[in-house]
Amino acid sequence: MKEPLRKSVLAVGPFHPLQEEMEFFQLTVEGEKVTDINVRLSYNHRGIEKLSETLQFDQVPYLVSRVCGICSASHPLAYVQAVEEIAAVKPPERALYVRTIINELERIHSHLLWVGLAGHFIGYDTVFMWAWKYREPVLDLLEEITGNRNNYGNVKVGGCREDIPDELKPKILQELDQIEKKTEMLTKAVLDDPVLHARLKGVGILKKEDGIKYAVTGPTARGSGIAIDVRHDDPYAAYADLDWKVISQPEGDVFAKAVVRLLETFESIKMVRQALAKLPKGPVAVDVKEIPPGEGCGHAEAPRGETFHYVRSDGGNRPVRHKIRAPSYVNVPSFKASCIGADIADVTLTLAAVDPCYSCTERIAVVDGHNAVIHDDEELLRLSREKTARIRKDLGAPEMKLEGL
Amino acid sequence: MQQNELDRQLSQIRDRLTGIDRKADNRIFLPCESEHVYEVCRFLFSELGLRFVISTGIDAQDCFEVLHHFSDDESGCVVTVKAFIRDREVPELDSITPLIPGAEWIEREMHDLLGIRFRNHPNLQRLILADDWPEGVYPLRKEVQT
To answer: Which residues of B touch A (CB under 8 A)?
Structure first.
C-alpha cells in the first residue's frame, strides 16, 4: 500500500540560547510556505510566581529582575508599582527620575542589541558588530550607576536603592552624544539601503486587527499601527514630566518594527537628557513599614512591550499571589497571524522582528517527514542570507557603507 | 475614553456584576459570578474596545478566582474582571479564547497550574507542565508546598 503523504514539519526550538526562555515552534510547511504553527514552551519554567510567594515583599524585586536579564529594570519596576499601589506609598520625586533614567538606558541597550541581531540574521554582520559595540558604553553607564551591567536590583518598594551621583552626569551626557551619533548613522544606513527595503518590506506582516486579537504590545504593536505605550497611556515614574512622542508605523512588517525601534532609541536618549536636567534634589527612598491587605496592578513599558504584575497581599510580609506577564507572552503567539503563508527564508526574520525569538533561529531544524531532509539552523540562516544576497544582486546594489566610524 | 465615560459604560453591565470597585485612580475591579464572565469580557473587549492584558488564576482557599485584566489605553485604566469559581472539586469556567485568541496560552496555563477547566477552549493541552508531570497535581494550589 502506498504510504500517505505526510506533512512537513519545521521545528524551531526547543532551546532559546540567548535569552532566559525556551520555546519550541513546530511549523507545518508545504514546499517553502508555512501553513500552520504550533507552539510548545516552558522547557525551563522556573516557577518564579510560586517562588515569589515564599519571599518577603522587599526580596521579590531581586527575584523578578531575574525574569529576564535584558528587561531587568522593568520587571522590578512593575512589581514595586503594584506593591506601592497596595500600600498607597508615593516614592520621592528624585527616585521617580532615577527609575526613568535607568529604564530608558535599558531600552537603548536592548534596542541596539536587537538591531545587531537582526543584521546578523540577514547577513549584515557589520551591523551586528557595530551595534553591539555602541551598546557597550550603555552597559558601562548602568554598571556605574547600579553596580551591575544587568540585573540592576536598583528599585525597591518606596524608591531606589542607589542614587545617580551628580558627578556622573557629565559622563552620561557625553556618552549619550556618542550613542546618538552612532545610532543616527545606523538608522540612516538602514533607512537608505535599497537592499534592506527590498528584504524587509512586506515581510512578516502583522495586521492591526490581528495585533488587537492577539493582544500584542510594545514595538510589535506599534509597528502595526497600534499606538499604545504604557509610558504615555498610564504614565509612571517621571514620564508625564518629559517631552517625547510615541513612535508608531502602520505597515506591520519587519521594516516597520525596525524603524520603530531605531526611532525609539532617539526618544529614549532625549528622555534621559531631559530627566538628567530636571533631576530633583532630595532622598531616593522612603521607609515602608508594612504592606496592608489588598491587591494592586503595576505595569511598565519594557523594551519589548508592556510588563504587567499583579500582587495580592493578606497583610503578612509575603505576597499571597504574584502574577507576572512578560511582553513576549502575548507577542509570541502573534506568529500565528504573521508566519502563516510566509516563506521559510522569512520565518527567521519574522521571529526576529518580535524580538524574543531571534535566538530561536540558532536552534531551527527543518524536518521533512516524507523525504527525511533535515535542515539545521545554519542551513536556514544561509537561506535567509542568500535571499538578501539575491536581492542585492538583482538591484545591483553595492555593499552597505557605514560611514563615520 | 474618559474616566467618567468609562464608569457610565460599565454601569450598563451592572446587573451581571456583584460590584464595581475603584481601588485606585486608574484601577477598576469588576467582581462577578463565574456564569457571567464571558458576557462581561465580551462587553469590555468587543463593545468598549479594551485591550486584553492577561489573566491571573488564584487559589483563594474557599474558592478559585480568575482575574481577566483589560486595559483602556486611552485613559490608562486597568479594568479587572474577577470571576469566583465556588466549586472547588470540579472548577470550571467559560473560555474567552473563542473571543480573544490572545487568551489561549494563559487559559492553558491556568488549566495546568490550578486545574481549572475552560469550557469551549479550542486547544486545552498542556502548556507549562512537562509531559511526564503526574495528573491531578496542580503546582499553584496552596496545598502544594514549594
So the answer is: 23-24, 26-27, 29, 51-54, 56, 58, 67, 69, 71, 73-78, 80, 100-106, 127-129, 139-140, 146
